[in-house]
């Protein structure tokens, strides 16, 4: 199984990607995680990526593609993978197609998580993060701290990240829509795109994800 998950910030695709990966025994490949691994390891690609990350610039398509290519050519993804956060552009989508062809594999499906903009703003806008080293995340509506403004785990101060403020969230959604619309069209034309309603509980969305993959009720690797 080789699946790409598309969706705006706050759609819950990271949670569903982890669930799918665990259920079917394949790696969850997040673009952010892959970048951090390379930076931490101090590889040539990691050093190049760090230059962009440290300056707040977008990492170029070519660099993202090189990092993804290295991982997809490794034995760890022999049985498949769940790609989360990649591809983010039509250029990356076409590059991913080439990489998979190099390994003699292809995508099973591309799932696009659909969620109302205001729901995303509510989900992200309610997040609070511990300022201390624990970094635990709370949510004022769905997972509030026992004592308002304080971390349950270490008593540290909770704060709202700039990226999580409602006006910033709306800007992020606009950028996502502009960048990812061509990706969705690319996979729709290839007959791979399937839309998943991302509203509701985590378990409800998981059932829809499995249904979209034709795996509802599956208990083992397909």
TrEMBL record:
Consists of three domains, a large central CORE domain and two small peripheral domains, NMPbind and LID, which undergo movements during catalysis. The LID domain closes over the site of phosphoryl transfer upon ATP binding. Assembling and dissambling the active center during each catalytic cycle provides an effective means to prevent ATP hydrolysis. AMP binds at residues 31, 36, 57-59, 92, 161, 172. CDD domains: ADK (cd01428). Belongs to the adenylate kinase family. Keywords: ATP-binding, Cytoplasm, Kinase, Nucleotide biosynthesis, Nucleotide-binding, Transferase. Monomer. Pathway: Purine metabolism; AMP biosynthesis via salvage pathway; AMP from ADP: step 1/1. Catalyzes the reversible transfer of the terminal phosphate group between ATP and AMP. Plays an important role in cellular energy homeostasis and in adenine nucleotide metabolism. Residues 30-59 are annotated as: NMP. It is found in: Cytoplasm. This is Adenylate kinase. Residues 127-163 form the Adenylate kinase active site lid domain. SUPFAM superfamilies: P-loop containing nucleoside triphosphate hydrolases. Its EC number is 2.7.4.3. InterPro entries: Adenyl_kin_sub, Adenylat/UMP-CMP_kin, Adenylate_kinase_lid-dom, P-loop_NTPase. One of its GO terms (molecular function) is AMP kinase activity. ATP binds at residues 10-15, 127, 137-138, 200. It catalyses: AMP + ATP = 2 ADP. The keyword Isomerase does not apply. HAMAP family: Adenylate_kinase_Adk.
């Amino acid at each position: 199984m080789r699946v790409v998950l598309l969706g705006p910030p706050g759609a819950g695709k990271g949670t569903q990607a982890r669930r799918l990966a665990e259920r079917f025994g394949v790696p969850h490949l997040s673009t952010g995680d892959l970048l951090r691994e390379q930076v931490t390891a101090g590889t040539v690609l990691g050093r190049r990526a760090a230059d962009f990350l440290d300056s707040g610039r977008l990492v170029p398509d070519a660099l993202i593609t090189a990092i993804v290519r290295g991982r997809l050519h490794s034995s760890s993804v022999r049985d498949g993978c769940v790609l989360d956060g990649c591809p983010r552009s039509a250029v990356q989508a076409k590059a991913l197609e080439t990489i998979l062809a190099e390994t003699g594999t292809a995508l099973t499906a591309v799932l696009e998580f659909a969620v109302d903009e205001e729901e995303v703003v509510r989900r992200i806008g309610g997040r609070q993060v511990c300022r201390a080293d624990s970094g635990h995340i709370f949510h004022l509506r769905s997972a509030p701290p026992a004592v308002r403004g304080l971390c349950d785990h270490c008593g540290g101060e909770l704060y709202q990240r700039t990226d999580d403020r409602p006006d910033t969230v709306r800007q992020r959604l606009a950028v996502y829509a502009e960048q990812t619309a061509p990706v969705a069209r690319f996979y729709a034309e290839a007959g791979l795109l399937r839309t998943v309603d991302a509203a509701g509980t985590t378990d409800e969305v998981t059932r829809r994800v499995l249904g979209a993959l034709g795996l509802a009720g599956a208990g083992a690797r397909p």
